[in-house]
Amino acid sequence: MKLLLHTCCAPCLIYPLKVLHQEGFETQGFFYNPNIHPYSEYAKRYNAVLDYAKETALALVSLDKEYPVEDYFREVAFKENKPARCHICWALRLKETARTAKNKNFDYFSTTLLVSPYQDQEVLKTIGSQISNELGIGFLYRDFREGFREAHNAARSKGIYMQKYCGCIYSERERYAKCC
Question: Which domains does the chain have, with CATH numbers?
Fold first, then answer.
């Protein structure tokens, strides 16, 4: 069974990839994250995913290195508050993953966002299921949160870049406005 795994960052890739391999999925990664801001942060996360993919022999599909930030801002304009912007962002990224998976003849799509205790699992599950029904491709839901600390500890020990905020300019502001 072929699965296209939306990959938000290298640390969050570690545990889901391990589990999916154990379950017998032929997994390939997909880095589509137009929400990440600024470009320097996008490049750090992108390069960390590239490096981890090489280390684990993970094939990457349609890695978008052109930084499609406009896709994100077009969707969240005038809807910048939480949780609306997060739901929009997740749907944007999952829909592009599902489209790509369908076009490249994958059986399923999923996301590394499901490893994070900071993301709303039920909303992600609902969005994934809706997109699955709309586009006619399977959405694989797994609650990977039990492996979050394990994955992040592994990332730290390997020196993999670990971000300090979710990715968008609004989450960056929320993260750093508290301290300054």
Answer: 2-177 (3.40.50.620)
